[in-house]
Specification:
216 residues, alpha+beta, Jelly Rolls, six-stranded antiparallel beta sheet, four-stranded antiparallel beta sheet, 10 strands
């Protein structure tokens, strides 16, 4: 018995995050203004979302984040495909990043990421755990692959990795999750007393200029 439709999900800690995250959090908080807000989504007083221009900033904290995030994400992506090291190193990575500040009682609704193959969620700062709400301020990935399965007494509680339940990952400062961008995901209600600060990045790869995907 083997799983045949497995979905990769990787978690990695970024180097020097302990030193850089407080500086990064302060920068993002300072720039959580109307100037940088994504006007394509409704204004939400409990959740600020920036435009996908974060990696275009020239601040030292962003240069660090861009380098470490892309390096770590590429390592995870390479680990689950059949490219040789030389083949993978020849690919051109394209990335668009935004930041979000999810305040107490705020959330990010379920969505998938368009025009991209991989999605990375990096945690800059997170509220303390809420013992009575284990799902507070978490990344939930929806297990919808078996949504049309007929349910009976023999398949309603399959063991992992065959179970069709959703997957919950609680972000910790300095940690990043990477998964296929097509997976429906959300940031659950923040029931804590502090902000959840995230950087969310769309990633895709191309064989040089000739094989580049269409414009973002």
């Amino acid at each position: 018995m083997v799983p045949i439709f497995a979905i990769p999900f990787g978690v990695v800690s970024l180097r020097n995050a302990t030193d850089m995250n407080p500086r990064l959090a302060a920068l993002l908080s300072q720039r959580a203004t109307e100037q940088h807000r994504d006007t394509a989504v409704p204004r939400d007083p409990l959740c600020y979302r920036s435009r996908e221009e974060l990696f275009e900033w020239e601040a030292e904290e962003i240069r660090w984040l861009r380098g470490e995030l892309l390096a770590a994400a590429c390592t995870l992506v390479r680990s689950v495909n059949e490219c040789t090291e030389a083949e993978f190193d020849s690919l051109k990575v394209q990335a668009r990043a935004r930041f979000a500040i999810v305040r107490p009682n705020g959330c990010l609704p379920a969505a998938s990421a368009p025009m991209t193959s991989w999605y990375a969620v990096y945690c800059v700062a997170a509220p303390a755990n809420e013992p009575e709400r284990a799902d507070s301020a978490s990344l939930r990935l929806y297990g919808i692959r078996q949504g049309t399965m007929f349910k009976d007494a023999a398949n309603w509680r399959l063991r992992m990795p065959y179970a069709d339940s959703h997957y919950l990952w609680r972000p910790g400062a300095g940690e990043m999750a990477v998964f296929p961008a097509s997976v429906l995901h959300e940031i659950t209600l923040n029931r804590g007393q502090a902000d959840l600060v995230l950087v969310m990045t769309r990633l895709r790869f191309a064989h040089g200029a000739e094989g580049a995907p269409p414009s973002w």
